[in-house]
């Protein structure tokens, strides 16, 4: 989806957090994750991880605090694996003379 510069939020540190939870606990963990404001997206999965979340926070310190003190403290979360997205300016694309962020 293309967004114009006016629609963009300020730069945030983004990361994907893959979560393993106790057997049968996916729904419980998903409900708990909904209360964490910086969780922007989440999906239950089949495979190595039970839940994948996308989080966005203002700093790497806030990222660490969110994972350590919020996500990992949810009961029934066994383990987490985090992929930190490289912090960089939005990619610009020019379409018919207009600049859009992707």
DSSP E strands, number? 6
Our measurement of the CA-to-CA distance between the termini, rounded to an integer number of angstroms, reads 7 Å
* Outline: globular
What series of H and E elements makes up the topology? EHEEHEEE
What would you say this structure looks like, in words?
By secondary structure, this protein is α+β, with helices and mostly antiparallel strands. The protein is built from two helices and six strands, in the order E-H-E-E-H-E-E-E. A four-stranded antiparallel β-sheet has the order 2-3-1-4. A two-stranded antiparallel ribbon has the order 5-6. A hairpin with a 2-residue loop joins strand 5 and strand 6. The chain is globular. The protein starts with 12 loop residues before the first strand and ends with a strand. 14% of the residues are buried. Mean pLDDT is 84; it is low at 1-6.
Q: What layout of secondary structure does this protein have?
A:
Elements: E1 13-21, H1 26-33, E2 39-44, E3 51-57, H2 60-71, E4 77-84, E5 92-95, E6 98-101
Antiparallel strand pairs: 1-3, 1-4, 2-3, 5-6
Q: Summarize this, please?
A:
The protein is α+β, with helices and mostly antiparallel strands. The chain has helices at 26-33, 60-71; strands at 13-21, 39-44, 51-57, 77-84, 92-95, 98-101.
Q: Main traits of this protein?
A:
about 35% strand; two-stranded antiparallel sheet; 6 strands; about 100 residues; four-stranded antiparallel sheet; disordered N terminus; alpha+beta; 2 helices
């Amino acid at each position: 989806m293309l967004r114009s510069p006016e629609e963009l939020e300020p730069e945030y540190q983004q990361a994907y957090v893959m979560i393993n939870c106790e057997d049968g606990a996916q729904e419980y963990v998903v409900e708990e994750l909904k209360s964490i404001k910086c969780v922007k997206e989440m999906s239950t999965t089949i495979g190595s991880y039970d839940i994948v979340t996308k989080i966005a926070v203002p700093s790497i310190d806030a990222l660490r605090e969110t994972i350590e003190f919020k996500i990992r403290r949810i009961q029934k979360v066994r383990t987490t694996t985090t992929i930190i997205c490289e912090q960089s300016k939005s990619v610009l694309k020019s379409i018919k003379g207009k600049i859009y962020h992707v």
